[in-house]
């Protein structure tokens, strides 16, 4: 009879052997090599978030699973990097069977909240309250095949995009694109644009949070091939007009923080950037670009399909679980109510943008 144990440690306490086993378990699962599910992402969050933890599941002393999470007040748990992580869940070897609440009890958690739980996470999926579409671009057949299909599906979109690129080159200056730009100044420019976009649209400014800036800086300097930051920049006359910072593994690029200079908005520089990025990603051997959950017209234009992700929470009986329900469930219910009514959702977006403009005055 095998002996089982769960040890809860800080991400920095995991060694090279743990990272190797973690990745072997992920590879054997057949799940996409999403960089958010890699130990390097958990380690980066652990370097900037003191409450980051990893539960290490052992059988007969050997690791058979990992559960990255963050532990807040009253034992309220959340997915590692919640708010910026686009793929979440546990990493479990085949045949490992667990009860979600028993796992939380072993981790001294009263609840566990997630908003981008990946498909196939049977441990937590029964506790989801909403299923969301996460658009993806399949580049497995190469960029030319993808571009042919895009032209067939959206001939007007492709023609307009290329015409705007030519106009940008004529009216502003030569257009060039850098897929993996090491310039820290360009990264700071992107953060500034993104902060302004959040404020302009009335949304929470992620780059007003110091830990997110530190996390992005850390990942931008990372050299781990399984999970590292990639800054892509579109220039016109050597001036940055659009940029994106994302995470990549050898086969998956996760779309994360895109933004552009509003002064060049008439050229749709964000769309031009994305088209160039897809071409460069395919040349790098990336087979999937995960655009992340959340509605956006450009995602619908570029996507070839959707993955499913889930939002919800596992809650144990007790005061901490009650706090989780009181604090989060009304917000989720209100958001679902609006999201399921497109006309109301559009009105809410206009209201947020109006509030954002007032704040900028």
From TrEMBL:
InterPro entries registered for this protein in UniProt: Acyl_CoA_acyltransferase, BioF2-like_GNAT_dom
Signal sequence interval, chain numbering: none
BioF2-like acetyltransferase domain mapped to chain residues: 159-300
SUPFAM superfamilies, sorted: Acyl-CoA N-acyltransferases (Nat)
Name of the protein in its database record: Cellulose biosynthesis protein CelD
């Amino acid at each position: 009879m095998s002996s089982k144990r769960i040890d809860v440690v800080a991400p920095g306490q995991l060694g090279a052997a743990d990272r190797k086993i973690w990745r072997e378990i992920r590879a054997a699962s057949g799940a996409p090599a999403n960089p958010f599910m890699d130990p390097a992402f958990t380690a980066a969050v652990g370097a900037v978030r003191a409450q980051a933890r990893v539960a290490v599941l052992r059988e007969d002393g050997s690791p058979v699973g990992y559960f990255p999470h963050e532990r807040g007040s009253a034992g309220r748990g959340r997915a590692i990097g919640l708010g910026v992580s686009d793929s979440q869940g546990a990493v479990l070897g085949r045949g490992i069977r667990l009860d979600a609440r028993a796992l939380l009890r072993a981790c001294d958690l009263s609840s566990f909240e997630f908003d981008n739980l990946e498909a196939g996470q049977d441990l937590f999926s029964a506790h989801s309250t909403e299923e969301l579409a996460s658009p993806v671009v399949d580049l497995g057949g190469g960029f030319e095949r993808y571009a042919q299909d895009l032209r067939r599906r959206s001939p007007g979109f492709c023609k307009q995009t290329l015409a705007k690129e030519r106009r940008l080159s004529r009216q502003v200056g030569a257009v060039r694109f850098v897929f993996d730009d090491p310039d820290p100044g360009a990264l700071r420019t992107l953060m500034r644009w993104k902060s302004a976009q959040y404020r302009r649209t009335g949304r929470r400014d992620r780059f007003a949070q110091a830990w997110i800036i530190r996390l992005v800086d850390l990942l931008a300097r990372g050299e781990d091939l399984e999970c590292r930051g990639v800054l892509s920049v579109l220039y016109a006359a050597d001036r940055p007009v659009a940029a994106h910072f994302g995470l990549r593994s050898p086969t998956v690029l996760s779309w994360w923080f895109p933004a552009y200079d509003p002064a060049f908005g008439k050229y749709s520089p964000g769309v031009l950037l994305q088209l160039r990025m897809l071409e460069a990603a395919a040349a790098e051997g990336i087979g999937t670009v995960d655009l992340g959950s959340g509605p956006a017209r450009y995602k619908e234009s570029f996507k070839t399909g959707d993955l499913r992700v889930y939002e919800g929470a596992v809650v144990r009986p007790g005061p901490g679980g009650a706090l989780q329900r009181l604090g989060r469930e009304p917000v989720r219910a209100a958001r679902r109510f609006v999201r399921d009514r497109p006309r109301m959702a559009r009105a809410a977006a206009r209201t947020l943008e109006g509030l954002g403009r007032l704040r900028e005055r």
